[in-house]
Structures are given as structure tokens and as C-alpha cells.
Amino acid sequence: MAAVFGAYPLFDRAAAPVVLAVGDALDTSPDPAGSTGVAGGELPDGTATLDDDLPAITGLDPELREAVRQAAADAAADDIDFWITSGWRSPAFQEHLFDEAVRTKGLAEARRKVSTPEKSNHVSGKAVDIGPTEGDYWLIEHGTDYGLCQAYSNEIWHFELLTEPGGTCPPMLDGAAG
């Protein structure tokens, strides 16, 4: 199996171990604040598989993790690989993302694009961001088979378990502010 864009897919079609060097060593120890960086849900190389033993993955709701795993397997059968670009986040990491969006985009745009820790479903482990774009489009088309729905109209990569498998997704929200 070949890696796409230097990342590794969620599902290994060949069922053989794949080892990709992200760096010489991965430091998964908590940072001094204990709630940002890898310990707070940041992914060290920006992507992860569901088999990675990282807080961004292990902090996901088990039902969401299994739905994404099943979807990834079926997408792989269609020659589509996708991976997690963001999963569970600590409140401190979510606050950091929100503060950074305020700094770079202004408060109004930040509220539209990034939820506060109190409102983010990433903090509760009930949201996952998927990449690359072809994987997003596959999941938009087939996600309801697994109960996965695109939650926001302005984020094609953000999925949540919002219906029963085979059900109908609720209307998308305009953005993170609702």
C-alpha cells in the first residue's frame, strides 16, 4: 500500500503493516501545561489512523471511531483513502485554536469557523475532521450509511455521528456558531 501525501490511510487494504517515518521519535508526553500539543489532541504530523495510540484518537467516542473505521474500509474498496486530521481535543487546545482564529481572522469570522471549548464536539470526542478532499467528498456521499454526517456547511471535513446508519442527516449548520 502506498502512502498518500506522506500520510497513512485509516484502512490498510493490503492488511500488511505499514511503517512510515514521521520523525525519529514521537514524544507523546504531556506538555508543561498538560492540555495542549499531542496530550491535548494535536496530531504530531497532522494526520492519524484509528490505530494510533494518541489522545486525539483514543479520546474519540467509541461509536464514532467504529463508524469511521467501517467507512474507511468501504472507501478503500472504492480506491479512496482518508485519514483523521483532527479528533478529540482538550478544552485548552480548543481554546488555543479559537484564540488563534480570533487573532488571524477577527472575532466574527473566528466564531463562524471555530467553536469555543464549551460548544465544540471535538472536546467531547464526538467530532472528527477527515482529509484529503476526495475522502471528504466520498464521506459526504456515503456517510449516512454509517450514521456520519457533515455537520457544518462551511466545513466539508467535519463529521459527526448524527443519525442511525442508513438514516437521514439533519440540516447542516452554517458554521461553528450554529
SSE layout and pairings?
Layout: H1 55-58, H2 62-77, E1 83-86, H3 91-105, H4 107-113, E2 127-131, H5 133-142, E3 148-152, E4 155-161
Antiparallel strand pairs: 1-2, 2-4, 3-4
Helix pairs in contact: 3-4
Task: Describe the 3D structure.
A hairpin with a 2-residue loop joins strand 3 and strand 4. The chain has 5 helices and 4 strands. It has a single domain, classed as Muramoyl-pentapeptide Carboxypeptidase, domain 2. Strands 1-2-4-3 form a 4-stranded antiparallel beta sheet. It has 178 residues and is of the alpha+beta class.
In short:
The protein has 178 residues and is of the alpha+beta class. The chain is built from five helices and four strands.
The profile of the biggest β sheet is: 4 strands, antiparallel
Named at the architecture level, the CATH assignment is 2-Layer Sandwich
Order of helices and strands: HHEHHEHEE
The number of E-state strands comes to: 4
Question: Within the largest sheet, what's the order of strands?
Answer: 1-2-4-3
Strand content: 5-15%
Distance between the termini: 40 Å
At the fold tier of CATH, the topology name is Muramoyl-pentapeptide Carboxypeptidase, domain 2
Region (Disordered): 29-51
Pfam family, one: VanY
Protein name: M15 family metallopeptidase
Domain D-alanyl-D-alanine carboxypeptidase-like core: 60-141
Give the tags.
alpha+beta, Muramoyl-pentapeptide Carboxypeptidase, domain 2, globular, 178 residues, 5 helices, disordered N terminus
